[in-house]
Specification:
CATH superfamily of the domain at 116-410: HUPs
CATH topology of the domain at 116-410: Rossmann fold
Distance between the termini: 28 Å
Number of helices: 24
Strand content: 5-15%
Largest sheet: 5 strands, parallel
Number of strands: 14
CATH class of the domain at 116-410: Alpha Beta
Helix content: 55-70%
CATH architecture of the domain at 116-410: 3-Layer(aba) Sandwich
Radius of gyration: 30 Å
Length: about 625
């Protein structure tokens, strides 16, 4: 039990003993004391004022007296406007510091016997991974790591969207315009190669739509179907999807391709497999660069049929209903949602159809208590519908579903659009941050003693640390702008700033080992300074931060904790001598404290995927 838990329990006991009121210790608010006041931890007394029937200061005084008598680790207390500030004695901090440096797993909790699945990335096989995928991947990876750290067995999965209209667009485009080109013959990375054909399809479709709008058929439709006062450009903007599904030649070819695929046409399946394999090879390279992997892969091509079977079963049970055109729907208006189509009139499935199948298949195979879907907030409605549908189907896992919704990420130049070919590919962004790290390193004249291979690896580490930290330091629900130059700034709230702190500490530890410095006198240091206490309190809080981050699926808590710890260490380094400390005991203590800070920085940044070299 850490000191915060000890204090929470002691305050709850005090309230019960003094005022006869049972209190949940977890509800007792104990926070680090602000720097302007004397103390290590502050207890918020206001919740107990009513039961105590005393002023906040009087209640704080009584509770403080109780704690001072019953908690051996409390050295003194003071009261400031209803806040009970507690000083913890140095003996506790000495023991705590030694326990941290002797525990390589500090901050992690033992297994809780529970299993959770985290689904992230989940790309379409019609384009390469892009900046939006990077945020998705890093959120999923960090959440998985945090959940593992607090005791869960975590299954990291992705559902590959390997079938459907978008994939058929790439296939049609390559067949019509590809002239037999391949990634090998063009020298283009294989997932980018396929993505180029998807972009070309959208360009050709736009050209076809523009030409069609000039036809007599289009003019007649405009005159007969437009709303009063509706401009022609607005009408055709709204009419685009209907045109694609009912009038477009390219659209007809895509629908025919999808029907052939669902009918298992050999030639269509062969083309589909070839192009998907190109994409998978490209994905694997990008995942490797990001340092992420998955325990289990699911493919929509394996789950869509199960989804259709679930719909048919639900139709017989009255969960769904069929319209005259043969399409199957679900009425969710009583839940404040809408009517939702789950199977098209032509019998083909939609995203929600295959999501139903995937959900059941995964629970059957994995048997998790919780299932976390990491998907952008553009799909909030989709997941409301999916979860409500699974609940109405009385699926046994429906209560354990969670959508980790996150805001879009943009560049300073604005939003990306895949269909227009303006998307920023993940590979290009990785290359860019490493390039910026390289340029900044040249400007500072760093790493001149390293070999070229060591320099490249060091710069790759800095660039990837910059990219990952900058992405996850923002709360998932917030939209964000990723600025590559800002992400690598050594003076900002960045990954390189934290990495620099770790490098400094690692250098100290190498010197300790090289010079054979004895640190055993650290426990005889008896005058812990405020800068040292600040670091100890921060280290003490690490486990709570990880636990809260895991519970809230919020890696930004760990990211910002890491930055604050590094900043506190810089202040400690600036204010106090370490190697030239005033006594051998002070030097040993500060070096041991530095080791503990480095240990926690390595652990916390590792949870965010920033591990190489830390």
């Amino acid at each position: 039990m850490n000191i915060v838990s000890t204090l929470q329990n002691a305050v709850a006991q005090a309230v019960e003993q003094l005022y006869g009121e049972a209190t949940d210790p977890s509800k007792v608010l104990v926070n680090p004391t602000p720097p302007d006041f004397t103390g290590d931890y502050s207890v918020v007394i206001f919740p107990f004022v009513k039961v105590a029937k005393k002023s906040p200061d009087a209640a704080a005084s009584a509770i403080g007296e109780y704690l001072a008598k019953n908690v051996a680790d409390i050295k003194a207390f003071n009261i400031v406007k209803g806040f009970l500030n507690l000083e913890i004695n140095d003996a506790y901090w000495q023991g705590f510091l030694q326990s941290v440096v002797s525990d390589s797993t500090y901050g992690r909790l033992p297994s809780n016997g529970k299993k959770v699945m985290v689904e992230f990335s989940s790309p379409n096989t019609n384009k390469p991974l892009h900046l939006g995928h990077i945020r998705n991947i890093l959120l999923g990876w960090s959440c998985s790591n945090m959940l593992q750290a607090v005791g869960y067995e975590v299954v990291k999965t992705q559902i590959v969207n390997d079938r459907g209209v978008a994939i058929c667009k790439s296939m049609v485009s390559w067949l019509k315009f590809g002239e037999g080109k391949t990634p090998e013959s063009t020298g283009i990375k294989s997932d980018h190669f396929v993505g180029d054909w998807y972009v070309l399809f959208e360009q050709k479709s736009k050209e076809e739509y523009g030409a069609w709008q000039e036809t007599a058929e289009a003019k007649s439709l405009f005159e007969s179907k437009r709303k009063p006062e509706q401009l022609e450009k607005d009408f055709f903007k709204d009419f685009k999807n209907k045109w694609f599904n009912e009038y477009s030649i390219l659209g007809a070819e895509v629908r025919e391709m999808l029907l052939k695929w669902e009918a298992h046409d050999p030639e269509t399946l062969a083309l589909w497999k070839k192009m998907n394999d190109w994409v998978y090879a490209g994905f694997d390279k990008t995942y490797g660069d990001l340092g992420v992997s998955f325990n289990k892969l699911y493919y929509e091509s394996d789950t869509y049929q199960l989804g259709k079977d679930i719909v048919e079963d639900g139709l017989t049970k009255g969960v769904f209903f069929k319209k005259e055109d043969g399409s199957i729907w679900l009425d969710l208006t009583d839940a404040g949602l809408d009517q939702k189509v789950v199977v098209r009139a032509d019998g083909t499935s939609l995203y929600i159809t295959q999501d139903l199948g995937t959900a059941r298949m995964r629970h059957h195979e994995l048997g998790c208590e919780r299932y976390v879907y990491v998907v952008a907030d553009e799909q909030n409605y989709h997941f409301q519908v999916l979860f409500e549908t699974l609940k109405r189907l009385e699926e046994p896992y429906a209560a354990g579903l969670h959508h980790l919704s996150y805001g879009l990420v943009e560049l300073p130049t604005g939003r990306m659009k895949t269909r227009e070919g303006t998307v920023v590919d993940a590979d290009d962004l990785i290359t860019e941050v490493i390039r910026i790290a390289t340029e900044q390193s040249k400007d500072r004249g760093e790493a001149e003693t390293l070999s070229e291979a060591e320099k490249r690896e060091n710069l790759r580490r800095v660039g990837m640390g910059a990219l990952k930290f900058f992405i996850v330091k923002v709360h998932p629900k917030k939209k964000m702008i990723f600025n590559p130059e800002e992400s690598v700034d050594l003076q900002g709230q960045t990954g390189p700033y934290i990495q620099y702190s770790y490098v400094r500490i690692n250098g100290l530890m190498q010197r300790v080992e090289k010079e054979g410095i004895d640190l055993s006198s650290a426990n005889r240091y008896t005058s812990i300074q405020p800068q040292e206490k600040e670091l100890l309190v921060a280290i003490q809080d690490y486990q709570n931060v990880v636990l809260k981050g895991a519970e809230e699926y919020d890696p930004s808590l760990v990211a910002n904790y890491s930055y604050d710890l590094a900043k506190k260490y810089h202040r400690f380094w600036h204010d106090l001598s370490v190697f030239n400390a005033e006594t051998p005991e002070a030097r040993a203590f500060r070096l041991t404290l530095s080791r503990a800070v480095g240990q926690v920085l390595k652990s916390s940044m590792g949870l965010l995927g920033v591990s190489g070299g830390m």
